[in-house]
Write a structure and sequence with these properties.
Blueprint lengths: L2 H8 L8 H6 L33 E3 L19 E3 L19 E3 L19 E3 L19 E3 L19 E3 L19 E3 L19 E3 L19 E3 L19 E3 L19 E3 L22 E3 L11 H8 L5 E2 L2 E2 L3
Parallel strand pairs: 1-2, 2-3, 3-4, 4-5, 5-6, 6-7, 7-8, 8-9, 9-10, 10-11, 11-12, 12-13
Antiparallel strand pairs: 13-14
Length: 338
Amino acid sequence: VSTVSVVDRRGESEESGDDETKRKSLNGEVDSLQAPSTVPKESPVDMDTITLDPDEEDVDLVHCRIGKIEGLEVLRKAKTISLRQNLIQCIENLDSLVSLRELDLYDNQIRKLENLQALTELEQLDVSFNILRKIEGLECLTKITKLFLLHNKIMSIANLDQLTSLQMLELGSNRIRVIENLDSLTSLESLFLGTNKISQLQNLDGLHSLTVLSIQSNRITKLEGLQNLVSLRELYLSHNGIEVIEGLENNKKLTTLDIAANRIKKIENISHLTELKEFWMNDNQIDNWADLDELKNAKGLETVYLERNPLQKDPQYRRKIMLALPNVRQIDATFIRF
């Protein structure tokens, strides 16, 4: 596995999607497998042919070639329903499932978020890998804590104001250009916006509870707008156009900083990040060994990625990192043997 793909994987939420798709979805290879279920032309089955157990709490209807949601009224006890990898085009006929906690519609052909208003107990919703163009129809889901909308065609972040219990929001691989309309999400802990078209870090000030922020593979050129995120522990900004490490003065709790594959010439302004455990800096323009002094205060630093910087041309590359940072256990993809 190339390091780059490893770096990319880390900035995605681990919870949505199957591993194979997730592994491929990160280096922009996604389009070739956008809905695996649609490649061979499958004809939908009739729901009448599927036997449902009225007492079942966890209902698994994965890859059943279901074309239309219907006949689920018997599932009054259902807490979780998985309809992933089917041929569903419309969210409908769910009104009787009032005790539902989790609904999984990953990898279908859904164009619109609708008909969810009866599911007021819902805590988790996954509509990743569909063809949604906007976020809508979620106002009644006030108990929802995790929302996965990975890999759709969503143009903007909107209509989330009522979801004040939301802890995780996954909007990676969409067409979002601006970070906006997040102020009411004061419980949000993880925000994933990788592989969009975002050019500026902004409008994050209200997210005081945020611990994970991933905005890899966007168009960001300046590190800014993070001063209020004092709880932030993991920051993933690889594959952007950042030139200077700056603006992290208040993010003292950071344990992971990933700024691989940018245009950075100098490691600077991070000597105060004493909690750092992982530092991803490969594929930049670092050429001065003295820069590693910036990491000396992070006594718990375990992993450092510096490959494909000018520094790597030094025949003593690994040895010099070990001397400068004696606590490090892993340099690039290789563990240190003692």
